[in-house]
Amino acid sequence: ALMLAAAAGHLEIAERLLASGSDPNAVDAQGHTVLMWAAQGGHIPLINRLLAAGAAPSAVVESTGFTPLLAAARAGHLKVVERLLEAGAETGAADADGISVMLWA
């Protein structure tokens, strides 16, 4: 449920789920985290809440190299890129095709 709330940018629902114990670092079947979905959608208020709840800004999908920072950069959400960098996201990530965050940004 938290994954769906993050993907859709539903901050209030995400807050309720986090308050009831949902894991801010939960992963879906492909290994994508809640923060990756929020970053891909450009949902900064939700990203801030997830980071405050302990979401890992540098989580990596092992099979693809995908990270929240890559999700934001690929989607063109520069404000999200900035926020994730402020939160300590690693900048050396590259996707499965070898394209780095810096090239996407």
Structure description:
With 105 residues, this protein is mainly alpha-helical. It has a single domain, classed as Alpha Horseshoe (Serine Threonine Protein Phosphatase 5, Tetratricopeptide repeat). 51% of the residues lie in helices and 0% in strands. The chain contains seven helices and no strands. The chain has helices at 2-8, 11-19, 34-41, 44-52, 68-75, 78-86, 101-104. Helix 1 (2-8) packs parallel to helix 3, helix 3 (34-41) packs parallel to helix 5 (68-75) and helix 5 (68-75) runs antiparallel to helix 6. The chain is globular, with a radius of gyration of 12 Å. The relative contact order is 0.16. The model has no long low-confidence stretch (mean pLDDT 92).
Spans of 5+ residues with little confidence (pLDDT < 50)? none
Largest sheet: none
CATH superfamily: Ankyrin repeat-containing domain
Number of helical segments? Answer: 7
CATH topology: the name is: Serine Threonine Protein Phosphatase 5, Tetratricopeptide repeat
Strand content: under 5%
CATH class call = Mainly Alpha
SSE-based structural type:
mainly alpha
- Pattern of helices and strands: HHHHHHH
Q: What sort of overall outline do the alpha carbons produce when their principal axes are compared?
A: globular
Mean pLDDT comes to 92
Q: Roughly what percent helix?
A: 40-55%
Summed up, the domain count is 1
Report the C-alpha radius of gyration, rounded.
12 Å
Give the total of beta strands.
0
Distance between the termini: 30 Å
CATH architecture: Alpha Horseshoe
